[in-house]
Recover the amino acids of this structure.
């Protein structure tokens, strides 16, 4: 869809224009001081304004152990919408026995989640827990095709 491409281009262009001296590695850099256009451009490009990700995605997940005994979360991300999604980040909340959140982290999903399909994921968690709550934190709809350049 052409609008999405333009939105992404405008979002990144404004990021570059506003932040030519911004350095994320700087000791004084803090998310509250990051360029506003980063969030605005990304939000406009992905269209989060009116719909929550849980409307389009379902997550099946379980905790386990990875290499070296490190805690991981793994499972399947289901796309219940007819358009492929990419650049997906999952938010993993580690819960204690009473259901309270004790840690949070982000797990990137490698690959493209096909429309009306699913994709396997596995990633490390920040802390082991009794349970994990996994939700879609960020995603982008991929080009829907059609209509030339």
């Amino acid at each position: 869809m052409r609008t999405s491409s333009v939105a992404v281009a405008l979002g990144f262009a404004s990021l570059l224009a506003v932040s030519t001296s911004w350095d994320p590695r700087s000791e004084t850099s803090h998310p509250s001081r990051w360029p506003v256009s980063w969030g605005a451009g990304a939000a406009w490009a992905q269209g989060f304004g009116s719909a929550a990700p849980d409307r389009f995605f379902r997550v099946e997940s379980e905790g386990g152990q990875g290499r070296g005994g490190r805690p991981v979360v793994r499972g399947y991300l289901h796309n219940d919408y007819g358009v492929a999604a990419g650049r997906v980040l999952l938010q993993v909340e580690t819960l204690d026995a009473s259901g309270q959140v004790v840690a949070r982290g982000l797990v990137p999903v490698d690959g493209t989640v096909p429309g009306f399909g699913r994709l396997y994921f596995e990633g490390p968690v920040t802390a082991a827990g009794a349970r994990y709550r996994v939700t879609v934190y960020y995603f982008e709809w991929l080009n829907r095709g059609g209509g030339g350049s």
